[in-house]
Amino acid sequence: MKPSPFSYHRPRTVEEAVELLGALGEEGKVLAGGQSLVPLMSMRLAAPAHLVDVNHIPELDTVAVTAAGVRVGATARHARVEKDAAAYDAAPLLRQGLVNVAHPTIRNRGTTVGSLVHADPSAEMPAVLALLGGSVELRSTAGSREVAAADFFVGPMESALRPGELAVAATFHRPPPRSGSAFVELARRHGDYALCGVAALVTTDHDGAVTTARVALISVGPVPVVVDVGAAVHGTGTAFDTERLAGLLDAAIDPEADIHATAEYRRHLAHVLAARALTEAHEHAGPTRDERAS
Amino acid sequence: MTTEALVRVAFTVNGAPYDLEVPARRLLSDALRHDLRLTGTHVGCEHGVCGACTVLVDGAPIRSCLVFAVSLEGAAITTVEGCRNAEGGMGPVQQAFQECHALQCGFCTPGFITTVTAYLEDHPAPTAAEAREAISGNLCRCTGYQNIVAAVQRAAEIKWGEGA
Protein backbone atom coordinates (compact mmCIF):
# COMPACT_ATOMS: atom_id res chain seq x y z
CA MET A 1 0.00 0.00 0.00
CA LYS A 2 2.73 2.46 -0.93
CA PRO A 3 2.78 4.49 -4.15
CA SER A 4 5.50 3.74 -6.66
CA PRO A 5 8.25 6.35 -7.06
CA PHE A 6 7.58 9.49 -9.06
CA SER A 7 9.22 12.82 -9.74
CA TYR A 8 7.70 15.72 -7.86
CA HIS A 9 7.21 19.27 -9.10
CA ARG A 10 6.03 22.20 -7.01
CA PRO A 11 5.22 25.13 -9.32
CA ARG A 12 4.32 28.50 -7.76
CA THR A 13 2.36 29.97 -10.68
CA VAL A 14 -0.13 28.72 -13.25
CA GLU A 15 2.34 29.59 -16.04
CA GLU A 16 5.00 27.44 -14.42
CA ALA A 17 2.51 24.60 -13.94
CA VAL A 18 1.34 24.54 -17.57
CA GLU A 19 4.94 24.76 -18.80
CA LEU A 20 5.70 21.65 -16.76
CA LEU A 21 2.56 19.83 -17.86
CA GLY A 22 3.25 20.75 -21.48
CA ALA A 23 6.77 19.36 -21.28
CA LEU A 24 5.68 16.20 -19.45
CA GLY A 25 2.72 15.40 -21.71
CA GLU A 26 1.24 11.94 -20.99
CA GLU A 27 3.81 11.41 -18.21
CA GLY A 28 2.54 14.29 -16.08
CA LYS A 29 -0.38 14.23 -13.68
CA VAL A 30 -1.79 17.09 -11.63
CA LEU A 31 -1.91 16.67 -7.84
CA ALA A 32 -4.55 18.86 -6.18
CA GLY A 33 -6.40 17.41 -3.16
CA GLY A 34 -5.28 13.89 -4.02
CA GLN A 35 -8.20 12.25 -2.24
CA SER A 36 -8.89 10.03 -5.25
CA LEU A 37 -5.42 10.02 -6.81
CA VAL A 38 -3.37 9.09 -3.74
CA PRO A 39 -5.37 5.95 -2.85
CA LEU A 40 -5.24 4.90 -6.52
CA MET A 41 -1.47 5.33 -6.38
CA SER A 42 -1.19 3.50 -3.05
CA MET A 43 -3.11 0.58 -4.53
CA ARG A 44 -0.84 0.80 -7.61
CA LEU A 45 -3.84 1.33 -9.86
CA ALA A 46 -2.14 4.52 -10.98
CA ALA A 47 1.59 5.14 -11.27
CA PRO A 48 2.23 8.53 -12.86
CA ALA A 49 5.91 9.21 -13.56
CA HIS A 50 5.58 12.89 -12.65
CA LEU A 51 3.27 14.72 -10.27
CA VAL A 52 2.73 18.44 -10.65
CA ASP A 53 1.57 19.67 -7.23
CA VAL A 54 -0.68 22.71 -7.75
CA ASN A 55 -1.36 23.21 -4.03
CA HIS A 56 1.20 25.99 -3.77
CA ILE A 57 -0.28 28.26 -6.45
CA PRO A 58 -2.21 30.94 -4.50
CA GLU A 59 -4.19 32.19 -7.52
CA LEU A 60 -5.94 28.79 -7.80
CA ASP A 61 -7.34 28.90 -4.27
CA THR A 62 -10.47 30.95 -4.97
CA VAL A 63 -14.24 30.88 -4.68
CA ALA A 64 -15.88 33.84 -6.40
CA VAL A 65 -19.57 34.60 -6.82
CA THR A 66 -20.58 36.59 -9.89
CA ALA A 67 -23.85 37.44 -11.60
CA ALA A 68 -23.38 34.35 -13.77
CA GLY A 69 -22.73 31.94 -10.93
CA VAL A 70 -20.00 30.53 -8.75
CA ARG A 71 -16.44 30.21 -10.01
CA VAL A 72 -14.40 27.67 -8.07
CA GLY A 73 -10.60 27.62 -8.42
CA ALA A 74 -8.62 24.43 -8.85
CA THR A 75 -7.40 24.14 -5.27
CA ALA A 76 -10.51 25.35 -3.43
CA ARG A 77 -11.34 22.52 -1.04
CA HIS A 78 -14.80 20.98 -0.99
CA ALA A 79 -15.15 22.19 2.62
CA ARG A 80 -14.51 25.79 1.63
CA VAL A 81 -17.08 25.71 -1.19
CA GLU A 82 -19.56 23.97 1.11
CA LYS A 83 -19.24 26.65 3.81
CA ASP A 84 -19.16 29.69 1.50
CA ALA A 85 -22.34 31.64 2.31
CA ALA A 86 -22.37 33.65 -0.93
CA ALA A 87 -21.89 30.49 -3.00
CA TYR A 88 -24.79 28.87 -1.16
CA ASP A 89 -26.98 31.91 -1.81
CA ALA A 90 -26.18 31.85 -5.52
CA ALA A 91 -26.47 28.09 -6.05
CA PRO A 92 -27.70 26.10 -3.02
CA LEU A 93 -27.20 22.84 -4.94
CA LEU A 94 -23.45 23.22 -4.43
CA ARG A 95 -23.73 22.71 -0.69
CA GLN A 96 -26.60 20.24 -1.06
CA GLY A 97 -24.33 18.08 -3.21
CA LEU A 98 -21.15 18.62 -1.23
CA VAL A 99 -22.48 17.37 2.10
CA ASN A 100 -22.85 13.99 0.39
CA VAL A 101 -19.22 13.90 -0.76
CA ALA A 102 -17.41 11.30 1.39
CA HIS A 103 -16.76 12.55 4.95
CA PRO A 104 -15.91 16.03 6.29
CA THR A 105 -12.27 14.93 6.70
CA ILE A 106 -12.02 14.07 3.01
CA ARG A 107 -13.75 17.34 2.08
CA ASN A 108 -11.11 19.27 4.02
CA ARG A 109 -8.49 18.21 1.47
CA GLY A 110 -10.36 17.13 -1.67
CA THR A 111 -11.11 19.77 -4.28
CA THR A 112 -14.30 20.38 -6.23
CA VAL A 113 -12.48 20.92 -9.53
CA GLY A 114 -10.43 17.77 -8.93
CA SER A 115 -13.63 15.81 -8.49
CA LEU A 116 -14.91 17.15 -11.82
CA VAL A 117 -11.72 16.20 -13.65
CA HIS A 118 -11.67 12.76 -12.01
CA ALA A 119 -15.15 12.24 -13.57
CA ASP A 120 -16.22 9.34 -11.40
CA PRO A 121 -19.77 8.41 -12.51
CA SER A 122 -20.65 7.93 -8.83
CA ALA A 123 -19.39 11.35 -7.76
CA GLU A 124 -21.76 14.13 -6.75
CA MET A 125 -20.06 17.26 -8.09
CA PRO A 126 -20.05 16.25 -11.78
CA ALA A 127 -23.83 15.85 -11.48
CA VAL A 128 -24.12 19.26 -9.85
CA LEU A 129 -22.18 20.88 -12.71
CA ALA A 130 -24.13 18.93 -15.32
CA LEU A 131 -27.45 20.01 -13.84
CA LEU A 132 -26.66 23.67 -13.11
CA GLY A 133 -24.77 24.08 -16.34
CA GLY A 134 -21.51 25.96 -16.55
CA SER A 135 -18.06 25.21 -17.75
CA VAL A 136 -14.52 24.16 -16.90
CA GLU A 137 -11.57 26.39 -17.80
CA LEU A 138 -8.58 24.46 -19.15
CA ARG A 139 -5.16 26.06 -19.56
CA SER A 140 -2.14 24.82 -21.49
CA THR A 141 0.90 26.32 -23.17
CA ALA A 142 -1.32 26.63 -26.27
CA GLY A 143 -3.72 28.92 -24.40
CA SER A 144 -7.07 28.64 -22.65
CA ARG A 145 -10.23 26.86 -23.62
CA GLU A 146 -13.55 26.61 -21.89
CA VAL A 147 -15.49 23.34 -22.07
CA ALA A 148 -19.22 23.44 -21.41
CA ALA A 149 -20.56 21.16 -18.68
CA ALA A 150 -22.49 19.11 -21.23
CA ASP A 151 -19.27 18.26 -23.11
CA PHE A 152 -16.92 17.85 -20.17
CA PHE A 153 -17.84 14.35 -18.99
CA VAL A 154 -16.80 11.90 -21.67
CA GLY A 155 -17.03 8.52 -19.95
CA PRO A 156 -16.36 6.75 -16.66
CA MET A 157 -13.27 8.42 -15.10
CA GLU A 158 -12.76 10.34 -18.31
CA SER A 159 -13.17 14.09 -18.79
CA ALA A 160 -12.40 16.34 -21.73
CA LEU A 161 -9.06 17.31 -20.13
CA ARG A 162 -6.14 16.57 -22.45
CA PRO A 163 -2.55 15.76 -21.51
CA GLY A 164 -0.68 19.00 -20.88
CA GLU A 165 -3.78 20.83 -19.68
CA LEU A 166 -4.54 22.17 -16.22
CA ALA A 167 -8.15 22.69 -15.10
CA VAL A 168 -7.80 26.10 -13.46
CA ALA A 169 -11.43 26.65 -12.45
CA ALA A 170 -15.03 25.62 -12.93
CA THR A 171 -18.06 27.88 -13.10
CA PHE A 172 -21.43 26.66 -11.85
CA HIS A 173 -24.32 28.67 -13.25
CA ARG A 174 -26.75 30.41 -10.95
CA PRO A 175 -30.22 28.86 -11.36
CA PRO A 176 -33.05 31.09 -12.63
CA PRO A 177 -35.19 33.06 -10.13
CA ARG A 178 -37.86 31.05 -8.26
CA SER A 179 -35.83 27.86 -8.50
CA GLY A 180 -35.32 25.21 -5.86
CA SER A 181 -32.87 22.35 -5.72
CA ALA A 182 -32.13 19.21 -3.75
CA PHE A 183 -29.65 16.36 -3.70
CA VAL A 184 -30.60 12.95 -2.32
CA GLU A 185 -28.67 9.71 -2.49
CA LEU A 186 -28.51 6.28 -0.98
CA ALA A 187 -25.27 4.57 0.07
CA ARG A 188 -24.70 1.29 1.91
CA ARG A 189 -22.70 3.11 4.55
CA HIS A 190 -22.62 6.78 5.45
CA GLY A 191 -20.09 8.55 3.22
CA ASP A 192 -19.69 5.67 0.78
CA TYR A 193 -20.20 5.99 -2.94
CA ALA A 194 -23.92 6.23 -3.68
CA LEU A 195 -25.75 3.24 -5.16
CA CYS A 196 -27.78 5.95 -6.81
CA GLY A 197 -28.06 9.69 -6.28
CA VAL A 198 -30.26 12.39 -7.75
CA ALA A 199 -29.82 16.14 -8.00
CA ALA A 200 -33.01 18.02 -8.86
CA LEU A 201 -33.64 21.56 -10.06
CA VAL A 202 -37.19 22.90 -10.22
CA THR A 203 -38.29 26.36 -11.38
CA THR A 204 -41.74 27.75 -10.69
CA ASP A 205 -43.90 30.62 -11.92
CA HIS A 206 -45.17 33.44 -9.68
CA ASP A 207 -47.92 31.18 -8.32
CA GLY A 208 -45.56 28.36 -7.38
CA ALA A 209 -46.52 26.08 -10.28
CA VAL A 210 -43.65 24.14 -11.79
CA THR A 211 -42.46 25.49 -15.13
CA THR A 212 -39.29 23.43 -15.60
CA ALA A 213 -37.98 20.37 -13.80
CA ARG A 214 -34.69 18.54 -14.45
CA VAL A 215 -32.68 15.94 -12.64
CA ALA A 216 -29.11 14.62 -12.85
CA LEU A 217 -28.51 11.06 -11.73
CA ILE A 218 -25.27 9.43 -10.55
CA SER A 219 -24.17 5.77 -10.49
CA VAL A 220 -26.68 4.80 -13.19
CA GLY A 221 -24.68 5.58 -16.32
CA PRO A 222 -21.14 6.22 -17.57
CA VAL A 223 -21.46 9.96 -16.87
CA PRO A 224 -23.99 12.04 -14.89
CA VAL A 225 -27.34 11.52 -16.64
CA VAL A 226 -29.35 14.72 -17.05
CA VAL A 227 -33.07 14.22 -17.71
CA ASP A 228 -35.73 16.84 -18.44
CA VAL A 229 -38.70 15.60 -16.44
CA GLY A 230 -41.02 18.53 -17.21
CA ALA A 231 -43.41 16.09 -18.91
CA ALA A 232 -43.95 14.35 -15.56
CA VAL A 233 -45.40 17.47 -13.91
CA HIS A 234 -49.13 17.21 -13.17
CA GLY A 235 -51.41 19.66 -15.00
CA THR A 236 -51.81 21.69 -11.82
CA GLY A 237 -48.06 22.21 -11.68
CA THR A 238 -47.94 21.25 -8.03
CA ALA A 239 -46.93 17.59 -8.10
CA PHE A 240 -45.16 14.94 -10.14
CA ASP A 241 -46.69 11.90 -11.78
CA THR A 242 -44.44 9.11 -10.53
CA GLU A 243 -45.30 6.70 -13.33
CA ARG A 244 -44.52 9.20 -16.06
CA LEU A 245 -41.38 10.17 -14.14
CA ALA A 246 -40.23 6.53 -14.04
CA GLY A 247 -40.82 6.21 -17.78
CA LEU A 248 -38.74 9.31 -18.54
CA LEU A 249 -35.92 8.11 -16.30
CA ASP A 250 -35.90 4.57 -17.68
CA ALA A 251 -35.45 5.92 -21.18
CA ALA A 252 -32.29 7.77 -20.07
CA ILE A 253 -30.46 5.68 -17.49
CA ASP A 254 -28.47 2.50 -17.98
CA PRO A 255 -27.61 1.11 -14.54
CA GLU A 256 -25.19 -1.79 -14.16
CA ALA A 257 -25.13 -4.57 -11.60
CA ASP A 258 -22.17 -4.94 -9.26
CA ILE A 259 -21.38 -6.41 -5.84
CA HIS A 260 -23.33 -3.60 -4.14
CA ALA A 261 -26.63 -3.65 -6.04
CA THR A 262 -28.44 -5.16 -8.99
CA ALA A 263 -29.26 -3.02 -12.01
CA GLU A 264 -32.94 -3.43 -11.21
CA TYR A 265 -32.47 -2.16 -7.67
CA ARG A 266 -30.55 0.87 -8.93
CA ARG A 267 -33.39 1.56 -11.38
CA HIS A 268 -35.88 1.36 -8.52
CA LEU A 269 -33.74 3.76 -6.48
CA ALA A 270 -33.57 6.18 -9.39
CA HIS A 271 -37.38 6.34 -9.49
CA VAL A 272 -37.81 6.76 -5.75
CA LEU A 273 -34.94 9.18 -5.19
CA ALA A 274 -35.88 11.34 -8.19
CA ALA A 275 -39.43 11.73 -6.88
CA ARG A 276 -38.06 12.61 -3.47
CA ALA A 277 -35.49 15.08 -4.83
CA LEU A 278 -38.06 16.79 -7.08
CA THR A 279 -40.55 17.19 -4.25
CA GLU A 280 -37.86 18.65 -2.00
CA ALA A 281 -36.58 20.94 -4.75
CA HIS A 282 -40.12 22.16 -5.41
CA GLU A 283 -40.52 22.97 -1.70
CA HIS A 284 -37.37 25.10 -1.89
CA ALA A 285 -38.53 26.90 -5.02
CA GLY A 286 -40.47 30.06 -4.40
CA PRO A 287 -40.70 33.77 -4.90
CA THR A 288 -37.46 35.71 -5.12
CA ARG A 289 -36.41 37.96 -2.28
CA ASP A 290 -37.60 41.04 -4.23
CA GLU A 291 -40.97 39.43 -4.94
CA ARG A 292 -41.45 38.54 -1.29
CA ALA A 293 -40.63 42.11 -0.28
CA SER A 294 -43.16 43.66 -2.66
CA MET B 1 18.05 -0.68 -6.93
CA THR B 2 18.57 2.98 -7.63
CA THR B 3 18.27 5.45 -4.81
CA GLU B 4 15.19 7.65 -4.96
CA ALA B 5 15.64 11.37 -5.25
CA LEU B 6 14.87 13.24 -2.06
CA VAL B 7 12.67 16.32 -1.85
CA ARG B 8 13.01 18.94 0.82
CA VAL B 9 9.96 20.02 2.81
CA ALA B 10 9.54 22.19 5.90
CA PHE B 11 6.52 22.20 8.19
CA THR B 12 5.72 22.26 11.89
CA VAL B 13 4.37 19.35 13.89
CA ASN B 14 2.78 20.18 17.25
CA GLY B 15 4.50 23.56 17.09
CA ALA B 16 8.01 22.22 16.48
CA PRO B 17 9.64 23.07 13.14
CA TYR B 18 10.97 20.27 10.94
CA ASP B 19 13.01 20.41 7.78
CA LEU B 20 12.96 17.03 6.07
CA GLU B 21 14.40 15.40 3.01
CA VAL B 22 12.16 12.53 1.97
CA PRO B 23 11.26 10.64 -1.19
CA ALA B 24 8.33 12.37 -2.94
CA ARG B 25 6.15 9.31 -2.48
CA ARG B 26 6.48 9.36 1.34
CA LEU B 27 2.96 9.57 2.76
CA LEU B 28 2.53 12.03 5.62
CA SER B 29 1.52 9.10 7.87
CA ASP B 30 4.85 7.39 7.18
CA ALA B 31 6.84 10.62 7.46
CA LEU B 32 5.36 11.20 10.93
CA ARG B 33 5.96 7.66 12.11
CA HIS B 34 9.21 6.71 10.42
CA ASP B 35 11.06 9.97 9.88
CA LEU B 36 9.86 11.92 12.93
CA ARG B 37 9.26 8.87 15.17
CA LEU B 38 5.86 10.25 16.18
CA THR B 39 4.12 6.90 16.38
CA GLY B 40 0.90 8.19 17.96
CA THR B 41 -0.59 8.46 14.47
CA HIS B 42 -1.78 4.98 13.55
CA VAL B 43 -1.92 3.52 10.07
CA GLY B 44 -4.91 1.31 9.38
CA CYS B 45 -6.28 0.90 5.88
CA GLU B 46 -3.85 3.22 4.04
CA HIS B 47 -6.48 4.24 1.52
CA GLY B 48 -8.54 6.80 3.37
CA VAL B 49 -11.37 4.65 4.68
CA CYS B 50 -10.67 3.93 8.36
CA GLY B 51 -9.69 7.34 9.76
CA ALA B 52 -7.05 6.00 12.18
CA CYS B 53 -4.32 8.20 10.66
CA THR B 54 -6.30 11.47 10.92
CA VAL B 55 -4.17 14.49 11.81
CA LEU B 56 -4.90 18.22 11.73
CA VAL B 57 -3.41 20.39 9.00
CA ASP B 58 -3.81 24.09 9.81
CA GLY B 59 -6.49 23.01 12.28
CA ALA B 60 -8.58 20.89 9.91
CA PRO B 61 -8.68 17.08 10.10
CA ILE B 62 -7.25 15.26 7.10
CA ARG B 63 -6.17 11.69 6.40
CA SER B 64 -2.38 11.57 6.70
CA CYS B 65 -2.33 8.47 4.46
CA LEU B 66 -3.91 10.48 1.63
CA VAL B 67 -1.33 13.25 1.38
CA PHE B 68 2.33 13.26 0.43
CA ALA B 69 4.55 14.83 3.06
CA VAL B 70 6.24 16.98 0.39
CA SER B 71 2.89 18.58 -0.46
CA LEU B 72 2.63 20.10 3.03
CA GLU B 73 5.35 22.73 2.66
CA GLY B 74 4.66 25.45 5.23
CA ALA B 75 1.77 23.64 6.95
CA ALA B 76 1.08 23.48 10.69
CA ILE B 77 0.39 19.84 11.55
CA THR B 78 -1.10 18.60 14.80
CA THR B 79 -0.97 14.91 15.72
CA VAL B 80 -2.50 13.12 18.69
CA GLU B 81 0.70 13.92 20.59
CA GLY B 82 -0.29 17.58 20.25
CA CYS B 83 -3.83 17.14 21.62
CA ARG B 84 -2.71 17.34 25.26
CA ASN B 85 -3.52 20.28 27.52
CA ALA B 86 -1.22 23.24 28.15
CA GLU B 87 0.32 21.58 31.21
CA GLY B 88 1.23 18.46 29.26
CA GLY B 89 -1.52 16.30 30.75
CA MET B 90 -4.48 14.82 28.91
CA GLY B 91 -6.44 17.21 26.74
CA PRO B 92 -10.23 17.48 27.11
CA VAL B 93 -10.93 14.86 24.44
CA GLN B 94 -8.42 12.39 25.87
CA GLN B 95 -9.81 12.94 29.36
CA ALA B 96 -13.37 12.36 28.13
CA PHE B 97 -12.35 9.17 26.31
CA GLN B 98 -10.86 7.86 29.54
CA GLU B 99 -13.86 8.87 31.67
CA CYS B 100 -16.40 7.39 29.25
CA HIS B 101 -14.36 4.25 28.50
CA ALA B 102 -14.50 5.20 24.83
CA LEU B 103 -11.72 2.86 23.73
CA GLN B 104 -10.87 -0.79 24.00
CA CYS B 105 -7.89 -1.84 21.88
CA GLY B 106 -7.04 1.81 21.21
CA PHE B 107 -5.89 1.40 17.63
CA CYS B 108 -8.44 3.81 16.15
CA THR B 109 -8.27 6.24 19.09
CA PRO B 110 -5.67 8.73 17.77
CA GLY B 111 -7.86 9.35 14.73
CA PHE B 112 -10.89 9.96 16.93
CA ILE B 113 -8.98 12.26 19.28
CA THR B 114 -7.72 14.51 16.47
CA THR B 115 -11.07 14.54 14.65
CA VAL B 116 -13.04 15.39 17.79
CA THR B 117 -10.48 17.96 18.95
CA ALA B 118 -11.02 19.93 15.73
CA TYR B 119 -14.79 19.38 15.75
CA LEU B 120 -15.24 20.87 19.23
CA GLU B 121 -13.64 24.14 18.15
CA ASP B 122 -16.87 25.13 16.36
CA HIS B 123 -19.36 22.80 18.07
CA PRO B 124 -19.47 23.59 21.80
CA ALA B 125 -22.58 21.49 22.60
CA PRO B 126 -23.15 18.66 20.11
CA THR B 127 -26.25 16.48 20.41
CA ALA B 128 -25.77 12.71 20.28
CA ALA B 129 -26.85 12.74 16.62
CA GLU B 130 -24.38 15.52 15.80
CA ALA B 131 -21.62 13.68 17.64
CA ARG B 132 -22.37 10.56 15.62
CA GLU B 133 -22.17 12.56 12.38
CA ALA B 134 -18.89 14.14 13.51
CA ILE B 135 -17.22 10.75 13.93
CA SER B 136 -18.85 9.11 10.91
CA GLY B 137 -15.55 9.03 9.03
CA ASN B 138 -13.74 7.06 11.73
CA LEU B 139 -14.05 3.30 12.13
CA CYS B 140 -13.84 1.51 15.48
CA ARG B 141 -14.11 -2.28 15.52
CA CYS B 142 -14.27 -2.71 19.30
CA THR B 143 -16.62 -0.34 21.06
CA GLY B 144 -19.85 -0.18 19.09
CA TYR B 145 -19.45 3.61 19.23
CA GLN B 146 -21.89 4.25 22.11
CA ASN B 147 -19.17 5.33 24.52
CA ILE B 148 -17.38 7.32 21.85
CA VAL B 149 -20.54 9.34 21.20
CA ALA B 150 -20.84 9.92 24.95
CA ALA B 151 -17.18 10.97 25.09
CA VAL B 152 -17.65 13.55 22.33
CA GLN B 153 -20.40 15.17 24.39
CA ARG B 154 -18.39 14.88 27.62
CA ALA B 155 -15.34 16.40 25.93
CA ALA B 156 -17.46 19.38 24.89
CA GLU B 157 -18.49 19.86 28.53
CA ILE B 158 -14.90 19.67 29.72
CA LYS B 159 -13.59 21.97 27.01
CA TRP B 160 -16.31 24.57 27.16
CA GLY B 161 -16.61 24.98 30.90
CA GLU B 162 -19.29 22.85 32.45
CA GLY B 163 -17.68 20.08 34.51
CA ALA B 164 -14.11 21.11 33.78
UniProtKB/TrEMBL annotation, chain A:
Keywords: FAD, Flavoprotein, Oxidoreductase. PROSITE patterns: FAD_PCMH (PS51387). Transmembrane segments: none annotated. SUPFAM superfamilies: CO dehydrogenase flavoprotein C-terminal domain-like (SSF55447), FAD-binding/transporter-associated domain-like (SSF56176). SMART domains: CO_deh_flav_C. It comes from the Bacteria. Residues 1-177 form the FAD-binding PCMH-type domain. PANTHER family: XANTHINE DEHYDROGENASE SUBUNIT C-RELATED (PTHR42659). This is FAD binding domain-containing protein. It comes from Nocardioides jiangsuensis.
Automatic annotation (TrEMBL), chain B:
Residues 7-83 form the 2Fe-2S ferredoxin-type domain. The keyword Protein biosynthesis does not apply. It comes from the Bacteria. Keywords: 2Fe-2S, Iron, Iron-sulfur, Metal-binding, Oxidoreductase. Transmembrane segments: none annotated. This is (2Fe-2S)-binding protein.
